[in-house]
Structures
1.
Amino acid sequence: MPVVSVKLWDVERIAKTKLPRNLEELKKLLAVFKAEVEALEEGELIYEAAHDRADTFSAEGLGRAIGIYLGTREYPKFKVEAPKRVKLDISKAPRYRPYAFGAVVRGLELDDEAIRQLFQLQEKLAISYGNRREIVSVGLYDLDVINPEWERGIVIEYKELKEGRMIPLGYSEEMTFGEVLKNTEKGKEYGHLVVEGSYPAFVYKEKVLSLAPILNAETYKVTEETKNVFVDVTGTVPEVMLRVLDVMVSSLAERGRDTVVEKVEVLGFGETPRFKEKAIKIDKYKMRELAGVDLDWEGELRRMGWRIEGDVAVAPPYRVDVFDVVDLVEDALSAHGYMNVPASALPPTHWGSRDRLHGLVADLMVGMGFEEVFNFTLIDKELVEELLGIEPVEIVNPRMKSYSAVRPSLVPSLLLSVRENQNYLSKIEIFEIGPVVVGGTTEWRLGVAVSKDKATLTDVGAVLMGLREALGLEVSLTKEDREPFVPGRSARIAVNGSEAGVMGEVHPKHLVRLGIRRPVAVLELKMDVLR
Amino acid sequence: MLKLDELKYSIVKELVAGAADVDELAARLGKRKEELMRPLAELERLGLVDRVEEVSESWTLSETGQRYLKEKLPEERLLELAEGGELSLSAVKEKLGDEAGIAIGVARGLGAKIENGLLKVDPEALRKEAEEVRRCLESPDEECARKYKRRGFFKKVKVKRIVVRATPELLKAWEEGRILKARTITALTEEDIIKGIWKDAEFKEFDLSVEFPIRYPKRRHPLMEIHEYVKEILVSMGFEEVRGNYVDYALWNFDVLLVPQFHPARSETDVFYVSGARLPEPEEDVMKRAEKEHLRMWGFWRAEIARRLLLRTHTTVVTARTLYERGGGEYRVFSLDRVFRSETLDPTHSMEFHQLEGIIVGKEVSFKHLLGFFKEFAKKMGLGEVFFKPAYFPFTEPSVEGFIRHPEVGWIEVFPGGMFRPEMLRVVGLEGYNVAAWGIGIDRIAMMLLGLKDIRDLYTNDLSVIRKIRIPKTLRR
């Protein structure tokens, strides 16, 4: 979840109210919007925004939400105009990043903090919604620098370029796209998203405005003097791009007394931003049923920034997280306060039940003098292959070699446990009841290990017989040579006529390789055969 | 024949050789006087020993005597000044202060003269006298104590001594060899019991000041002890336990839960994808419905992404599959099992950990009941009060995060939950029912209960660690 930094005075001017300076009160207030305050230092508030509330990724949206909640602001009204100045041609876009949409916002009044917030929003959206710019990234340009003559109907192209040149944002020298990738920080961070020789770029009259989704050109950068901006989103998933654009545009529109959102005509696609309100029917019966309480639904929803029109709740375009009546319930409950909901446990309707076998068998093992150990199911793939001679289910993207596969047997884990304890104890008698994965199916097993001087098959065989007596099993043994056991000193076990497990003395070659000093005998049984 | 235990036997042996004062006897036997009193009384009862109390007068150091034992005597100080045999009276008074008079008196008693303000002493006589006094202070005898009594070094006290001696009966029995040492038993044997040896034997007194060795109980793993307890609580609340596969399709782990296919939580940096596993084909109907809901919500869905095999990242997979298999009704299930995330093992992270998760399915189930469940569970676990806040999870709405108070770090998040979204319920084919879904950060709770700070101590196979983990009070109620 994105961590956002805002200045309280900035949020206050947007919310049109004073905010508490007390950390606890701020925490309570932001919790309404699922944001978690992390710190307050010299008027700077750091909080973790909720992923779904993209509008709260910067001061504009947070201030707006707080203002409406506290009653100092009204339901937001945006002035939206049809496309006039800018058309976007995406017909020559690279195939791997085929979409670009745009918007114009006019009448901005920016200062240093406003610019910081807009860049923060752009960055947080591209990380959280754009999967680090992969599916969406956002760019901002001073429109009056692109088109100083106020010419109408200019066409900005989003297209594939073999190579291009620009002064990257924050640099003073012109670079080729190739150099931008190599020599700039953003180029190194996001370069993998573009294909060399097939660069996605915004171009106007042969001039490069930006190399998407990496860096804009310095020439068109947004400054405190900027009044009118062109916003672009490029990416691979149009639905998400459009939502991100709605959030970006509605935040930009907060930065001025009289801002106008001017749509852009994306040739062959339609007008963007979509900037549509969302209407959801207020089904009070359903809402009461889901919440378990009745609330002043309309009142609470208004505080959360909804407009009520008869039996319909309408959300502004930036609420990209609402789809269904259940979303109304959460918003209303949030405004009402979760702690004000009368929590009540529903009495059980049925008897509960659980697996009892694990506990029962564990008690028998403890009774026989064994201690229970815990091991991860994740294990070293090579270890499994060498010990058992079988290929386990393997992790495609492991982090550590020691945890690169899923164990198909408890035996390797038991040997690791013996090794762990051999310096502490000269006689180790342990068991584990745990899962293994065979072929893809999870299965529960009992593993028993005895390690001491002169440990033999008898040590674990006695345990098998103990279980047989306690559980009334019919046990039969078949001699079978298999890894990791000493030939002639292991057995396959059948219980009540079905395949149940193995036992054996671990071959010294394995003990030596693992660094185990004393003999080890093991027993492994499927838990299900003990039922 | 008379069998005496070891201590009585050694007392008797000493007394046969001659009577003794109890203090002396104790010193010879290396015992404290008190330890001898009971055996002596018993020996007396047997007619083997006589006890005589003698009261005598004796000299002992007075407070002044005690003081001079540590400090210099006036004559010793005078001696230091009078090496040449002559010194001025004023100097003596200046150096010796209050003790000048005594020193001069002693000196004059030894023949010193005072002439023209000078004190002429005989250093040799003075030294002798000083040495004599010193010796008497250190080891007084009757004669010198009497002598120096007038200087206030000694006082007379009455001393009670207990003198013990062998009776003629004892001496006779000893000579005739009728006194024997009894066997001392430190560990009773089968033979001792069967042959009646215990009757004449003495049991050695057990020394409780010596540390006992520790016998560690063979026991369940502490984590499993907590799991048993948690399951017991859930069963009492009407839940049935379910389990599922660790390997599953991304479909069930993510798509069913409405996590967009482009969401970073699905990336290889967060999730372990697997190869070499064979599973039955993904359910066609679920695939279709997942596609429909994803396209509606996110405008993006691809079958091949849903078909990737992974290690489940949460147990919601299990509850979601249960909903698919069981459909509607009034029921509650839980799963307490392992899940996997791409993490590097360190004190606060593990690539494999436990999740406790459950659902309450029913027509009348609501959000208020979910909060009620958390409160009741917390009460039964002895976790104190719960604090609720709105939260976000893609598959629940409304969603909640519940916090409990950790004794050291303050409020910690342990109860995420929410009402399953209608889109998700449609994907698993359920309509007309509400489902309250909850998760519980069981590892955090387990670590809190067990007083552990490092998750590697919770997931340990090291018996030296396991044996030292205390069973929490909560589990002993």
2.
Amino acid sequence: MGDFIGERSRQILFASWQHFSLVVQCLILATIIAVLIAVLVYRNKALAGIANGVSAIGLTVPSFALIGLLIVPFGFGVTPAVIVVTFFAALPILRNAIVGLNNIEPTIVESARGIGMSRLKTLVSVEIPIAWPVILTGVRISAQMVMGVAAVVSYALGPGLGGFIFSGLSRLGGANALESVIVGVVGVVILALILDLILLGIGRLTTPRGIRV
Amino acid sequence: MSDSKISSSAASENTVSGASIMLQEVTKTYPGQKKSAVGGLTLEIPAGSIVMFVGPSGCGKTTTLKMINRLIEPTSGQIVINGEDVTTMNGDELRRRIGYVIQAGGLFPHMTVASNIAMVPKMLGWDKAKINARVDELLELVSLDPELYRDRFPKELSGGQQQRVGVARALAADPPVLLMDEPFGAVDPITRQRLQDELLNIQSEVQKTIVCVTHDFDEAVKLGDWIAIFNEGAQLEQYDSPERILANPASEFVENFIGSGAGLKQLTLTRVNEVDLVDAITTTPGKRASDVLSQLQGSGRKIAVVLDSRGRPLRRMDRRQLSRAEIIEGTYDPDLPVVGEQATLNDALDTMLVASAEYALVTGRRDVFTGIITVQTVMEAIAAANSSMDDHHEAPVGLNSGAINVVDIESEPAESGGEPA
């Protein structure tokens, strides 16, 4: 085991970095998309219901099946990987963003409008900042979940630690096969912990004292 | 609001910075509803006065209020502020020129007190130094120490303090008109009375046009220069001064709304500053107690009042306390019976009863001590008030077009529609 890690330390570090970077970039993209969709639908009960339904059903789609389907139009490589990770990452964020925006006291929005803030200004300066802790909780849930998804999408020859897992599993019983799988799995878990700590820190820094619980 | 304005309003001649508001045949009909929430309401709100909208819940008083700043767009009719028709202008720009206060202040929880107050000036593009100075000035105006409260968040304030910040935020850009929607509904009775007193003190400094919705008739009598009593569909039952409404209810509806205790309402009509106050021996922390005691004995008074550096009362001391003490201490007594000078005699009596004292300390602008009111003064004032009631005055215009067929604002005599003169 020690030899395995020692010999391939550069390769492992590089794959870890790629894995981490894929997840972080997809998370950022997913947050933007999810908040945008939430903003569009949260005032309309029917639309918000549909969005919540899509979010719930979407999470039941096996990521392995989705990546398989996406290989057909997009081929192997980074594109299908990014699409799948972003898709799964967006779902919990969308759900939390809708809940967060809907739970703001109507009187706060009314007073924002009452002192002459436009619809957009109210959204940007009042509603999203107040909903932010809830949205960020969604981001943390997403981050944990898509760390695993990102490993699966390596099947489509995307970047990341998934490569170690798949190559190990395909020649199970052979030399270093188990070590390869373990390195992949443990690496994903460690990355997930690191990212969660970072997000926790971001939460502390970006949540004003007035709405911290 | 500049210093010059304060000093000029402190003199007997007040500068009115408020604007007149005219609602002309304003109607609001919600889609899918046959009956209008507000039906053809014409209402004149004189500049610099406080007009109270009262009525049972669902009568359309809040809808009417929100149509003035067009949070609710009227279905038809015009809103004219200071001669300018604002019915079609940009609603957001209009609202930046009109202060708006709702229950519990409606503060933004993620912003500090200072950023809450600075919101409108920022939108209007004021520079930073001017905004900061304005924030401190407003906190002083609503009796909150800027040093202590500027950087706090709303959740770190009491209900009454939040409401004060709400008022400060509404006044930030010095708007001529202030709209208040049940502003004191969410606080306890004692805090409510203090906030009402403070609003009256602030109003005597700023002289805005204030429109305030309430369901509490006593509050309307206390705060209002004029009271508009609404029935369902914002049908105006009576629009007149509190004295006249109490003396001559225009309809059975008004009579029922006022309630049976109209005789005692005299207590609500007379203000503390309309009666003679007793002077008091005052002192400041750090003085020798024996000096104050001899002063007190010389004057025949029972208590001395300890004031802070700004003349605000801290505590009272009777002869026994003075004889025990060596140096006057500056600790604040939270149970001190204090009323604002614009409080009603009703409030004053209440305060005395709560504190089991036969007197209350009276404070004026910015909580500065002005004198002492005693139970005897209150009793004498009630007797005097009952014997004198003036009935020479003109009420502003207010009517529903449904009630009268032709509405001609120009030629309409200055009487309320619900009230045959």
